[in-house]
Structure to design on (111 residues):
C-alpha cells in the first residue's frame, strides 16, 4: 500500500473517531436525547471501528482491505444519520464520516 495513502486514511480514521466521540457526547446533552439514540449508537460504533481500522492500517496488516471495507460501510451509516440532524456537532461528524468512508474505499480498492 502507498505510504501516503496509508497515512491519509489513518488520519481520516482518527479524525472521524474523534468527531464521533464529540458528537455522541454532545447528543447526550441535547434536550431531546431520546431523539438522538440512533445517532449516539452509530457514533459509538463508528468511533471504535475507526480506531481499530487505524490500528490495523498502522501495522500495514494483510487484513487492511477487509477492515477498510467494513469501516467505510459504518462511516456511511453514521454520516447518513448525523446528516439528518441540524446541530453543528452532527454536521461536523457527518463530514468527518464521509471523508473517512472515501479514504477507506480508496484503501480497499487498492488492496
Amino acid at each position: 500500500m502507498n505510504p501516503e495513502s496509508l497515512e491519509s486514511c489513518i488520519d481520516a480514521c482518527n479524525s472521524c473517531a474523534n468527531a464521533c466521540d464529540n458528537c455522541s457526547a454532545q447528543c447526550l446533552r441535547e434536550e431531546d436525547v431520546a431523539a438522538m439514540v440512533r445517532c449516539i449508537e452509530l457514533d459509538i460504533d463508528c468511533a471504535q471501528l475507526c480506531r481499530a481500522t487505524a490500528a490495523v492500517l498502522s501495522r500495514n496488516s494483510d487484513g487492511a482491505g477487509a477492515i477498510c471495507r467494513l469501516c467505510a460501510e459504518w462511516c456511511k451509516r453514521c454520516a447518513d444519520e448525523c446528516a439528518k440532524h441540524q446541530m453543528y456537532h452532527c454536521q461536523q461528524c457527518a463530514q468527518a464520516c464521509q471523508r473517512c468512508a472515501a479514504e477507506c474505499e480508496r484503501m480497499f480498492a487498492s488492496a
The domain at 3-110 is CATH 1.20.1270.360 (Substrate Binding Domain Of Dnak; Chain:A; Domain 2). The chain is about 80% helix and 0% strand. The CA atoms of residues 84 and 90 lie 8 Å apart.
